[in-house]
Amino acid sequence: MKQYVPAAQSKAEKAIVIGAGIAGLLTARVLSDFYGEVLIIERDEFSLKPSNRLGTPQAFHPHRMLPRGSMILERYFPDYIEDLLNLGAFPTMKEKMLIVNEFASFKASSPVKNAACSRALLEYVLRQRVDQIPKVRFSSNLEVTGLQASSDQTRIIGVFTRDCSDQKQEGASTADLVVDTTGSSSKATQWLESLGFVVPEPERLHVSLGYSTRYYKIPQQLEENWTSIISEAQPSKCVSTAMLLRFENNIAGTLLFSAGGEHYPSTDPEQYQAEINHLPDSRMAEIVKQLEPVQSPRGYRTPESVRQHFEKMENWPSGLLVLGDAFCCFDPIHGQGMTVAAIEAETLGGCLEEERSNPQPHFERRVLKRMQEAIEPAWWLSSVADLRWKGVEHVYSEPMKGVVFAQKYLDLYMKQTMKLATTENNLSLYSEQFMMNALIISPREIFNSNVLTLILEDSRSLEAQQLLAELGETDPHKFQTRIDAIIPSFAHIFD
Question: Do residues 294 and 344 both lie within one domain?
């Protein structure tokens, strides 16, 4: 019988991380607390200054780390926000934000300290920090071509590599743990199938999304009184999401987004500006007219979001994990990707800590299950939002719970939010939804009988009647039982 070797025992000296993006850097940082050596293999070359890599085609577009992700980054990279600010990032505590939706609009400010910057700058700062860890080393311009397995195929013992230079020299590296963080281009499924494993069908959201981005220089007269804008989509009216955000070095960016495949925001400068001009609220167009474009709009298109279910493989090989977009990739408009990668890395760290004190068999599969639980709120919330668009379809062996109910619930919740914000300057409901979307609190903090009773203030309204019909219950004493039956439990995720 094969002897079980725990991943975090002293014998487990080396880990390999495939990919040096945000997920890979976070993973390497976590692993450095448990392994004697961590090797990061990256196919791209690294620049000596912040710049977008060829392996991250979406990096041109705006990225934001949600507050939950920032909290995790601060834990593993203390004062990283100061590093960003010192390199020109914009402090979000100074950022005024205009929120616009179909009900009304109001101004808010960020309740948490953060830094608005490009993905390139964030990745650069984290890479510099990781590079200072003695246990970690980088190997760039090197591509992983496959997994090395033990003779009985039960354990991954390393990777095969190929030099990306003209010589294309092939090689191999062994390790006690291999973590694939190569994003949506991951070949983990193909590698596993080539070793004889049967990989479960992933959960897919056929979203056919598209967004276009343009950057501008902010003139001096707008720097001090800058207002960022988030104009929420109205899918039933084919109205795109629109954002005006600020980044490092007095650069602003606009982004237009839609899903379902019927319309993609233009990349033609004149048509792009025309789409901004025709937004329901004119304030974004008024600000953009005062900005100086630094390049033409660029687009990004993707047909689907994919959530792997590797945790369902009973024969998952030891010595292998998958993390980040390689594990689950999201619609980028919700800004969840980097934060979810941080949550997964933190989950891995917690599991390694448990393993060190109380080793148990099937460590890697247990990590996959924990990560799956941890990402459930983000996947559910983004899917509920995307499924509002005509043409978006959820495809999996199990239906997604509570989609229509959640959509009607959030419609009424937002209507009440805007009413309180605009008539009483009361941002309590907005703050709770912000915390939910920031992945700090569970959706259950919003979806419960107490909140439902609150937002049903005018139970005779059309929205209230539609929500109660979807709930299938009019007795307030039975609201919670029905809610529990309709939406996921998200049990233990936020304990």
Answer: no
